Amino acid sequence: MAKAFDLYQHVTDSIIASIESGTPAWRKPWTGDKGGAPFPLRSNGEPYSGINVLMLWLAADAKGYRSPFWFTYRQAQEAGGQVRKGETCATVVKYGTFEREDEATGEDRRIPYLKSYSVFNAEQIEGLAAEYYGTPAEAARDLGTEADPALDAFFAATGAEIRTSDDPRAYYDPAADHIHMPPIATFRDAAGYYGTLAHEACLLSPS
């Protein structure tokens, strides 16, 4: 028997993964990004609601999707597109009720149900009309934010390996056991940089 879909565990796991991957998008204190997380829309332009908004926001932020549109596999084909081979779906849910006769009383009862199904962002699909695709990612900007020597010395003393590149993401890589940070100049202030670095340092493997 297939294992039942646990909505609550799925949402919890998604939120934890978002937090562990770095500072969440809605608190990101630096410029430049790998993508965005616009308000999610169904293929017909109808907005999602409820927990699906959070689930698709997290999925879009994790993958850097800037398109708001999400399709089922069939909807993509009906729109003239094709999901690229190897793409991973996101999960959304539908809550509803149906009527069933109560054997004891003979009266109709409303029975709630929760159904999950798979969707793909427009950026995972080839051949769609141009209006379905997102806008370019925000470019990183040099804001002139300068490092604090005392705080740099503090983090150096922890023994953490801190790497910096133009990749606009802050994260801890557990496999390589290092922290990656965007350049401090792209942060709006030094507090945002060192606060983000401290968050990532909390995820370091114990020595």
Automatic annotation (TrEMBL):
UniProt cross-references to InterPro entries, sorted A to Z: ArdC_N, MPTase-PolyVal
Polyvalent protein metallopeptidase domain mapped to chain residues: 150-202
Entry GO MF terms: single-stranded DNA binding
Segments forming domain N-terminal: 6-120
Name of the featured protein: DUF1738 domain-containing protein
The organism of origin for this protein: Paracoccus liaowanqingii
